[in-house]
Amino acid sequence: MFNVETIRKDFPILQRKVNGKPLVYFDNAATSQTPQQVIDAIVEYYSYYNANIHRGVHTLSQEATDKYEQARLKIQKHFNAKASHEIIMTSGTTHGINLVANGFASLLEKGDEIIVSALEHHSNIVPWQMLCERSGAILKVIPMNDEGALVMSAYADLLSEKTKLVFVNHISNALGTINPIEEIIQQAHAVGAAVLIDGAQACPHVKPDVQALDVDFYVASAHKMCGPTGVGMLYGKEEWLKKLPPYQGGGEMIAEVTFEKTTYADLPHKFEAGTPNICGGIAFGAAIDYMNAIGFDKIATYEHELLDYATAQLLNIPGLKIYGTSKQKTSVISFNLAGIHPYDVGTLLDKMGIAVRTGHHCAQPIMDYFKIPGTIRASFAFYNTRDEIDALVTAVQKAQLMLS
Ligand SMILES: *Cc1c(COP(=O)(O)O)cnc(C)c1O
């Protein structure tokens, strides 16, 4: 059974007050909160077996290596990758995207085309622009419609034998839209293009199966799924990871690995130069265990109830407009109040203990589409409640009164 009150006890931070009010944390799309089970994994690492991995013969180093590699296996299993060496530990989604973009620089030719979507996070736009500058490739954009959904017929028109790469997020962080990635992947493969899916916003809500999706690359960040910041994962099909050159081939790493051992080309280490975020990787594994113990089906069902409830309640407020109204969406609501700047609303909500995000949410092209400076974004997690949504609705009404 899914019991939100029991779940909330796992999150120490949910007990705290902000500005004298109980914290209502609705900024989950920026980063999720951390359960005690994950905090314990972090404390245990630094208290009992902190050591560098893959190098030492001593007990602590072996324990740390075992735990770190166990975390990789948990990630492999969670995403259903065929092999554990197809999981590259990264510092997060941004790192994973840059790793792939950098690798493709040597595979692209002038005039090749890369397709991104209008719904992308800046971290999924800028690396491709940089790649195009370096390689002479051309960037094409799948447009969106008024609901905040991608125009799939336009995507079909963009695809051709010139298309080498397609990059789309699984779920939009700014609007919550769930993109039809199965279709996107199939159509890209039909013209021989590779696909990278940015799963940063999807992984807190769904459990992707990279083999079923037949995706070439999939990236995620631990901190959006109950893990710590500064760690994430890149899944890549083995054939692709073998083709891509190392990302951080620093002198040290090459000297050590190439001349002393012959393990240079081995996956996943080829892409893991330097001491990684060992503790973070282990805690990422703990976060995956935690979320799976609750169950992604239950999480999705519950969050959908929260989304429907909050959407209905917020739309009762006169002058409130929601951006991103696709039927396929997760528990993110981006909205504005007529005639009021989102930042002012966000500031007043914080005074009432409610954490939301205001601004362009690293997705300026989306804001440009709607011709707005930004939105107020409330994003819900499985540990949020209807009572908290009621508090948000009351607070938004108060803010509206004060600001109009
Ligand atoms: C958060 C987010 C990112 C960036 O993740 P980092 O952890 O900052 O690297 C990229 N894409 C989407 C859709 C996101 O929500």
From TrEMBL:
Domain Aminotransferase class V: 24-392
SUPFAM superfamilies: PLP-dependent transferases
EC nos: 2.8.1.7
Entry annotated with the keyword Iron: no
InterPro entries documented for this protein: Aminotrans_V_dom (IPR000192), Aminotrans_V_PyrdxlP_BS (IPR020578), Cys_dSase_SufS (IPR010970), Cysteine_dSase (IPR016454), PyrdxlP-dep_Trfase (IPR015424), PyrdxlP-dep_Trfase_major (IPR015421), PyrdxlP-dep_Trfase_small (IPR015422)
Catalyses which reaction(s): (sulfur carrier)-H + L-cysteine = (sulfur carrier)-SH + L-alanine
Top-rank taxon, per record: Bacteria
Pfam families in alphabetical order: Aminotran_5
Tagged with keyword Transferase: yes
Record GO terms (molecular function): cysteine desulfurase activity; pyridoxal phosphate binding
Cofactor(s) needed: pyridoxal 5'-phosphate
Single GO biological process annotation from the record: cysteine metabolic process
Top-level EC class: transferase
Keyword tags: Pyridoxal phosphate, Transferase
Family, as annotated: Belongs to the class-V pyridoxal-phosphate-dependent aminotransferase family. Csd subfamily.
Biological role stated in the UniProt entry: Catalyzes the removal of elemental sulfur and selenium atoms from L-cysteine, L-cystine, L-selenocysteine, and L-selenocystine to produce L-alanine.
Name the UniProt record assigns to this protein: Cysteine desulfurase
